[in-house]
Amino acid sequence: MNEALTARPGMTVGILGGGQLGRMLATAAAEIGLSCHIYAPEAESPAFAVAAHRTCAAYDDEAALAAFAASVAAVTFEFENVPAATARFLAERIPVYPNPDALEVSQDRLAEKQLMTELGIAVAPYAEVAALNGIYSAMARTGRPAILKTRRMGYDGKGQAIIRTGDDPVTAWRMIGEQPAILEGFVAFEREVSVVLARGRDGAMRAYDIVENEHQAGILARSTVPARVSPDIAAEAVAIGEKIATALDYVGVLAVEMFLLPPGSGPRLLVNEIAPRVHNSGHWTQDGCQISQFEQHIRAVAGWPLGDPTRHSDVVMTNLLGDDIAAWAAIAAEPGARIHLYGKAEARAGRKMGHVNRIKGFSR
Ligand code: AMP
Questions:
Q1: Which of 72, 174, 279, 340 has its CA 20 to 30 A from that of 237?
Q2: What is the CA radius of gyration of the chain?
């Protein structure tokens, strides 16, 4: 532990982004005596309500960014589409964790895939599609069905279009807004899993148990721990996550989403995506572990020792999307359930309004 660089109790950690992840980070920080300064451009940011300090300004407002940097011991971010230039501007003034290079890799699906390939980590067959005329040679590489994904700014299934046999690829190209993209072969996975781990400033790493994830329309619907995977697969998933974190000289919580393939001749795990932040598939840790992913991330960023990630309960985490939140009172009354709501005013379809962690085998 480097005392000089540590954010001691009473000090402030800066967070770029004001969504629910920033909100839960700020709450976790408060529980260990740290304050948070949330920097977000949207006045309605859910994290503002629970933060000790707030700046509502654009990500390219250098005066506001400089004042923000001067007010905190370290900076982190809660979503990966913070402009890399913003992270770099801040990094010249104050430690930024994870580092801007890690942020930048995760912002570009092509760079991310290339890094995995360099590290010898298996991914789905893919090809770059820089312009429409590249789509045909890409399809020859991936076969069909395939998924066209924008290189940048895609999340929760946005910026994606499936191309099936017989489909006109021009339709998919238009659907994603005619932007630089990658084409990915469709993976017939057995299930989806993720590893959520933390790496401290000293390089120490602690992984949570592997999570099994179910998506609907590209959005995470449910996460279950323990995942139905063998100890060998679980160990392999953690090793993949650790390899990525080490290669990126990463500090903080990192999530790696993976496809588990049925047994066959090739690798069982393919990396789909990395998230350089706390992740929806780690929300179960709030009620299944002594130290949640949110506190763990704050600890890493603040230079504290990492906490024990051991799971003490089996948990099913269900997202409350859009109108699901209407059932809040019934969920709040359920034995063994803990509801987490994000304080968002408007329940638009598919919008993440909250989640519920249900402890399995709970009895009164
Ligand atoms: P992503 O935005 O890349 O995380 O994709 C969202 C979800 O779409 C994933 O969690 C999968 O359920 C599905 N998906 C994405 N890429 C593929 C693929 N190459 N093959 C099969 N399903 C995919």
A1: 340
A2: 20
